[in-house]
Design goal:
The complex is a heterodimer of chains A (574) and B (198).
Chain A (H helix, E strand, L loop, with lengths): L1 H21 L5 H23 L12 H8 L11 H6 L3 H10 L3 H12 L8 H6 L4 H4 L10 H20 L7 E5 L7 H7 L18 H4 L11 E4 L12 E3 L4 E6 L2 E6 L5 E6 L6 E6 L5 E6 L3 E6 L4 E7 L6 E7 L2 E6 L3 E6 L6 E6 L5 E6 L5 E6 L4 E5 L4 E6 L6 E6 L6 E6 L5 E6 L4 E7 L6 E9 L2 E9 L7 E5 L5 E5 L7 E6 L5 E6 L3 E6 L18 H5 L7 H4 L13
Antiparallel strand pairs in A: 2-29, 3-4, 4-5, 5-6, 7-8, 8-9, 9-10, 11-12, 12-13, 13-14, 15-16, 16-17, 17-18, 19-20, 20-21, 21-22, 23-24, 24-25, 25-26, 27-28, 28-29
Chain B lengths: L1 H27 L8 E6 L2 E6 L2 H19 L3 E10 L5 E11 L13 H17 L13 E9 L9 E3 L8 E10 L3 E10 L3
The chains are: A alpha+beta (574), B alpha+beta (198).
Chain lengths: 574, 198
Amino acid sequence: MSDKRKANINLANNASKSVLSLTSPAKLNVVSSDWSKMTAKRSANKVTKRHLSSSSTLSNVTNVVSSSKGSNNRPTMHHVPQLLRRSSSFFKDDLEISEKRPSKSQDSDDILLNTDRFIPLRSEHSFTLSKIDPSSFEVEVPPPNASPSTHLRAQTKRVFKQNVAEACGLDMNQRILQYMPKPPLSSVRKQSYSIGNRTHYSYSNGYANDNRKDIAKLRKINSNPERILDAPGFQDDFYLNLVSWSKKNILAIALDSALYLWNGEIGDVSLLVEFDRPGAIASVTWSDDDCHISIGKNDGNTEIWDVETMSHVRTMRSGLGVRVGSQSWLDTLIASGAKSGEIHINDVRIKNHIVSTWDEHRGEVCGLSYRQDGLQLASGSNDNTVVIWDTRTSLPQHIKRQHTAAVKALSWNPDVSNLLATGGGQTDKHINFWNTTTGARIGSINTGSQVSSLHWGQSYSSNLEQREIVATGGNPENAISVYNYETKFKVAEIVHAHEARICSSQLSPDGTTLATVGGDENLKFFKVFEPRKKHQFGVCGDEGILGLLSVGKNCDDKSKRSPARRKTSDYLIR
Amino acid sequence: MASSISLKGSTRTVTEFFEYSINSILYQRAVYPPEDFSTVKKYDLNLLKTHDNDLKQYIRKILLQVHRWLLGGKCNKLVLCIVDKDTCEITEKWEFDVAHNSKMESAHQEQIDATETQKQIRALMRQITASVTFLPELSNEGNYTFNVLAYTDANAKVPLEWADSDLSEIDAGEVVQFKNFSTNDHKISTRVSYRVNE
């Protein structure tokens, strides 16, 4: 008997230690508060026990006791789970008391008393794995309209929690990680399927992208625009895409019924074309060769203009009679999205230019974007869906309905080819990140305002690349917000960048400056990202993986980094 | 000092094994066409290894990171899933459990001979090759792709290309356990689970 007690005391001693190690770091503070309650209860408990035999006046403290006292079928020792005894740290006290009254029935009473604690009866399984409910560890993300410093505080809190967990030597949840880039196609089918020569896999070797010491920093960006241009007559319509910036640093903008070209090098403006009907232009997009521009019009036609000669090249008729509000080029193909929901794939070289019609959307298609390698096309629509199309089969690969408003902002990550960011409109306010290979949503940010455009960029803190995404918004703050992709925290913000909502934005060819145009008929240029640096870590050499493991050879991977842009002479438009 | 060296050597053996086993599986299960592979002599066996540069780079990038995790003792499982391109469903799942001996009690830490390890790996590679006979045929050939999952500690450093994933279980699948092999610091156990054809 006494041996058994001793063993129990030992168990209890162990338990008091194991409480710490079994508790999640996220719950550490909870434990401490429970602790005080426990001690309070413990003292109450002592009182209860002393008066237990005489009356049940204290039964309000322990409900179970009174009920079980009345009934005969008391739970016996073996009904009490082993773990219950082990995990309760105040057994020791109970045992001490029961030692004073060594009777068998009293002993079982003690055990009974222990059952009335609010000790969670967890299964042995969950304890042995010492896993934490991941939901308990979720960090509450601050409200989207909070200032970057609030975000910083939340971030510091998370880092602190992690440090505490580490200091306690706790093993937190294990993570299941998937290598996101898509496996390459086999050599046989690569030849038949590759569209253009844009396929390039070059990923940052991200050695210390998640070095947490470096995350907790605010970015400083200039909240004053570098330049402001007047944009009189700019149509304040969320569903239109009226700005486009070419790789040759020429920005095309549609003002009312005219299309203007602004040269970023020298700053002069030229008028490309003026249509008769007011508001005739619904979308403007540069071709991949940066020599041609396609103009989607209100009557459903798409016109292609040559900017070298400033001349009209051809008109493609959709035959739908509704405006073409979004376009995306892929070599000689233009995907154009109509108000009625159809997406036409036009081949500009042939007479019957519509090579296929994709009819999946039930609302106006307001965002269209080809992936760099052309294997997928993302489309966002006023029916609140994002569709990721397989361009080889012309079938929707994934249809995503998580957004609750029109999806206009679409942006493919330049490094990870199957990472897509989409932003929802006024009632949605979220940015979602997708793995377009599996269709899984891999992240989400509440921005607190409609998302009219998204662009990927980067900054560097102590020479480590931070991948970031910039979103332009509308009411209430008309802000430009920069988020860190890894942490999903806001790292910089320009509030009231425009007096009215921001309708569109484009990133400059060097990826640093954002041109935004808003309902206030201004075109403003903000420097939001740092110029992209050459990546330090490259993998080269051909033979055997083991040769690379010991020495991290540096090699010049500039050729890999620079996107494989086609030469303009690669194709001709007739 | 000496132990750190042997840990490196052991991790190398494990990573090398992963490289050859992934190549073998991709060949045996015809995820990539046979033309992409050429025969190499390894573990006294004729194994097939891809000579397609893109695929080679792809596997290399994965394993470089896995190697880094293994060195830090952060990785405890590597999973190769064979996925149907049409349905995005996992048809086959090859799991390699990694147990770090250093984490276990050092009481029964007998030194394992390198040749013994090679022998065990050889037996395991033979089993993987032989598994084609009982695994269900992958209908419509060439319509499969693969992805790689790594089970790591939550505090492991994670590069941008790696993102959290779900368990990717196969419902009502069958599991076949293979032979194990162990090095001084690691113990690898392999098993395959697969969907049973109705």
